[in-house]
Amino acid sequence: MTETTKVNLLGLTQPQLEGFFESIGEKRFRAGQVMKWIHHFGVDDFEAMSNIGKALREKLRACAEIRGPEIVSQDISSDGTRKWVVRVASGSCVETVYIPQAGRGTLCVSSQAGCSLDCSFCSTGKQGFNSDLTAAEIIGQVWIANKSFGTVPAKIDRAITNVVMMGMGEPLMNFDNVVAAMQIMMDDLGYGISKRKVTLSTSGVAPMIDELGKVIDVSLALSLHAPNDELRNRLVPINRKYPLAVVLDACKRYISRLGEKRVLTVEYTLLKDVNDQPEHAAQMVELLRDVPCKINLIPFNPFPFSGYERPSNNAIRRFQDLLHQAGHNVTVRTTRGDDIDAACGQLVGQVMDRTRRSERHIAVRQLGDEAAPSASAANRT
Ligand code: SF4
Fold it and tell me: 377 Cβ partners below 8 Å, 6+ apart?
């Protein structure tokens, strides 16, 4: 077997890893041992796996590897926010952001390099689509972040308590790899994160929301951004294919399958004079009347040539109050990581300076509080 055909064990779920060991004539229980070494302890060298005999270590070295994405840069903000730029196999760079808050730490993970959905306020969308990330490249972002905190064994003083698939890309357009990575996040042999604390955010790929419900029970967030089809067709073009009624029905089906009083997170980027008016709040109240949800308002963070502006604080408060008065649980996302340019819409220049890559390879992201920071995103998904 040549170097290029080695199997990357980083992105394999437990059943896949068991299948791998069987395929090389070894016992399935080896999968659990190796997963712990990889994900609990951040090990990437078979030699360090002390409970695995020398012969098997050599066999593994010959046919397998543990390889995460290449770290291009890592920054830590004075407020504790951390940002990684990593290069994936296609040569593109994507970003991962960690946001510490009281009692929890949320990691925002990318699923694609670029995005094909072209939401009008999103810098990632403007870059076009470059590549799907592999499962190893997706879980590799968690692996890298976890290692940066000192490879704590699972469940002990864990720095990463929540993961949100809200980075660059539309996760449901890279379904199999995203699902595999989320399964590893929730597996006790992986990162042991509760299903309630792993959130997939979608712009509304309705049929895939139903598919998701058949295979996993993570939390779901919908990037709404407009309370009527006419406006949403302009802001989130996939709405022309899957209009609001279709998307919200799919979300309701997904949430009702989860039971346990779980709700949809609705994300709404506030754009000055575009979707931030009282009539938009009223339409939103009507639209979400029978949707169990909480709402996360995201004041737009301008980036060059976006053509949009951030609403005034008064307009943001007014919008929030109108939703509150209608009985909704509403939070307003705050910007974090300003000093490392990890805040909303601040990343393009930095990444370009560091990597000299073309703009279409650059992720732009916003950060949030709530259970839902977003990357290339919060202006986005
Ligand atoms: S907002 Fe999300 S789905 Fe829309 S273009 Fe940006 S990354 Fe893609």
Answer: 108, 122, 124, 166, 167, 168, 201, 223, 365, 366
Distances (CA, A) of 152 to 38, 42, 183: 12, 9, 20
How many angstroms does the Cα of residue 169 sit away from the middle of ligand 1?
Answer: 6
Mean pLDDT along residues 245-272: 94
Distance from chain centroid for Cα 64: 27
Helix ranges (DSSP H) in the chain: 14-23, 30-35, 54-63, 123-127, 135-148, 175-186, 206-215, 229-235, 244-258, 278-287, 313-325, 347-355
Return the bridge partners of 201, or none.
221
Please state the rounded mean pLDDT for residues 300-329. 94
The domains located in the chain, with CATH, are: 3-65 (1.10.150.530), 70-359 (3.20.20.70)
pLDDT in tens, 178-210: 999 999 999 999 999 999 999 999 999 999 999
Please name which of 80, 89, 97, 148 lies closest in space to residue 364, comparing C-alpha atoms. Answer: 97
Amino acid 311 reads: P
* 295 HSE (CA, 13 A, CB side): 27
Known binding-site positions for [4Fe-4S] cluster? 115, 119, 122
Q: Does the CB atom of residue 124 touch ligand 1 within 6 A?
A: yes
Ligand 1 binding pocket mutation candidate from 121, 127, 165, 170 (most atoms within 8 A of CB): 170
**Which has the closest alpha carbon to 169: 138, 124, 126?**
124
Q: What separation in Å is there between the alpha carbon of 231 and the centre of ligand 1?
A: 16
| pLDDT attached to residue 378 | 42
pLDDT exceeds cutoff 70 at 324: yes
Contact assessment for residue 1 and residue 19, using Cβ atoms and an 8 Å cutoff: no
